[in-house]
């Protein structure tokens, strides 16, 4: 398959959690293709961008907590003063935690994980869908737009969207919910020309993973069970799958989730 490298050029995307790990790799992927990228992150420090990439195409909204619907809506208002058409959204921001392998996960942990991983996706997805629907009201029926699509969403799911991962009850519940949101949005907004898909990474070498596995031998055990290379994914390998779902090569796909786990869960 040949990827069209200039498809994203000049198109605008919103990426949540783009300061680290997979979100940062998605930012680099899009900037390398001359896209305009709006990064929403709870971090106050801008994402690091190599000097060969077009820095001017990056717009950063620091201290943006996706759990707050009003903060997210305000940021979308700011984005629309710069970018009238937002071509795509990547719902990537998420949290995990040290595994709880004996005993119960606390109510506080459950609430925080659901807030970021589910409410956050809900908030940003609804702000984006609202942008699409308001554009639709302004547009005349246009068969070309229906083919091209009015918008595209890629949600970061997980292998925990399909499996009951040991030590991660709240996280597993949250990622099953993101899978459900992916399918429900795909079903409900296909008629408006919006495609909604997901990428489900297996263990991926990011600060999130390093944070939760640093004090355990879980990573070594996990990697020994990965058929492709006995290793975790590189963030760029997840970004490639996200790029495919954003692009025209996936124009007839919606409501689907691509697992990128080195064959761990075949
Ligand atoms: N790393 C893995 O092994 C793995 C596996 C499967 C799925 N995922 C998913 O991929 C996504 C990215 O994970 P990662 O490993 O790159 O994590 P990461 O911790 O490296 O990066 C997450 C980013 O999200 C931001 N963020 C966290 N909470 C936020 C909030 N409330 N509002 C706005 N931004 C917030 C962080 O500041 C950070 O920039 C997550 O949804 C995660 O669940 C990761």
TrEMBL record:
<feature type="transmembrane region" description="Helical">
    <location>
        <begin position="12"/>
        <end position="31"/>
    </location>
</feature>
<dbReference type="GO" id="GO:0016616">
    <property type="term" value="F:oxidoreductase activity, acting on the CH-OH group of donors, NAD or NADP as acceptor"/>
</dbReference>
<dbReference type="Pfam" id="PF13561">
    <property type="entry name" value="adh_short_C2"/>
</dbReference>
<keyword id="KW-0521">NADP</keyword>
<keyword id="KW-1133">Transmembrane helix</keyword>
<keyword id="KW-0472">Membrane</keyword>
<comment type="similarity">
    <text>Belongs to the short-chain dehydrogenases/reductases (SDR) family.</text>
</comment>
<keyword id="KW-0812">Transmembrane</keyword>
<dbReference type="InterPro" id="IPR036291">
    <property type="entry name" value="NAD(P)-bd_dom_sf"/>
</dbReference>
<keyword id="KW-0560">Oxidoreductase</keyword>
<dbReference type="GO" id="GO:0048038">
    <property type="term" value="F:quinone binding"/>
</dbReference>
<dbReference type="GO" id="GO:0044550">
    <property type="term" value="P:secondary metabolite biosynthetic process"/>
</dbReference>
<dbReference type="InterPro" id="IPR020904">
    <property type="entry name" value="Sc_DH/Rdtase_CS"/>
</dbReference>
<protein>
    <submittedName>
        <fullName>NAD(P)-binding protein</fullName>
    </submittedName>
</protein>
<dbReference type="GO" id="GO:0006633">
    <property type="term" value="P:fatty acid biosynthetic process"/>
</dbReference>
<dbReference type="InterPro" id="IPR002347">
    <property type="entry name" value="SDR_fam"/>
</dbReference>
